[in-house]
């Protein structure tokens, strides 16, 4: 995977895991500054504080140097921009429908899925086979919680012939080829996160995750179980 390739390259070059930062603590500081949401001007002010310059002495002295380091880190699926022409329902002075060009930023969804599944952080939180969970030994009370406990995944991937009360015997591959698994794709957009670009352009962010990943991980933004894959442009 991409993560394994990065690890091997770092080991070959005898680089520490926190490269290009000087130490793990400096990496933590840079991560906090980048994710805090403060402006670059505020970051510059913070880094100019005497207590920071004299005691911590980070290798980056301003926001520009910090983001230059960040730009050398793996970025995941690359971004692509497509210019779309939208026809509205308003008419111009000639009686023709008005048009507007908008920028549609997007990332490859398949690459985003690969990034999530290949992330070693999630190795204990991913499921590749469905489960049927029952609350009683008679198998009369079914529990549905995670996506892999649902009927659709089961029907696609497994055919099971029950010969005991616990339905634990004789499994066979379902409609998928042997060795294949279901990857439920989850797309979401949050209307409270309308992003403002340069000028007066605006767009709705779109996020992707997969049902193979536990919902406890998906719903925690800090764990990065959800990836930003695009911006839906807002026309004027």
UniProtKB/TrEMBL annotation:
Protein name in UniProt: Uncharacterized protein
Pfam families: Plavaka
């Amino acid at each position: 995977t991409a993560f394994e390739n990065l690890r091997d390259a770092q080991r070959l070059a005898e680089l520490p895991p926190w490269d290009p930062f000087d130490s793990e603590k400096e990496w933590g500081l840079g991560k906090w500054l980048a994710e805090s949401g403060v402006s670059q001007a505020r970051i510059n002010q913070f880094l100019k504080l005497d207590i920071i310059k004299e005691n911590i002495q980070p290798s980056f002295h301003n926001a520009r140097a910090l983001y230059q380091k960040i730009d050398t880190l793996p970025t995941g699926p690359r971004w692509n921009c497509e210019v779309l022409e939208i026809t509205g329902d308003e008419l111009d002075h000639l009686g023709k429908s008005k048009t507007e060009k908008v920028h549609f930023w997007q990332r490859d969804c398949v690459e985003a899925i690969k990034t999530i599944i290949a992330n070693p952080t999630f190795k204990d939180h991913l499921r590749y086979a469905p489960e049927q969970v029952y609350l009683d030994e008679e198998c009369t009370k079914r529990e549905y919680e995670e996506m892999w406990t649902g009927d659709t995944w089961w029907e696609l991937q497994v055919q099971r012939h029950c010969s005991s009360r616990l339905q634990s015997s004789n499994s066979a591959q379902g409609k998928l080829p042997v060795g294949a698994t279901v990857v439920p794709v989850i797309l979401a957009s949050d209307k409270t996160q309308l992003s403002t670009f340069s000028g007066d352009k605006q767009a709705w962010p779109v996020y992707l995750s997969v049902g193979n990943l536990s919902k406890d991980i998906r719903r925690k933004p800090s764990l990065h179980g959800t990836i930003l894959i695009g911006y839906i442009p807002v026309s004027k």
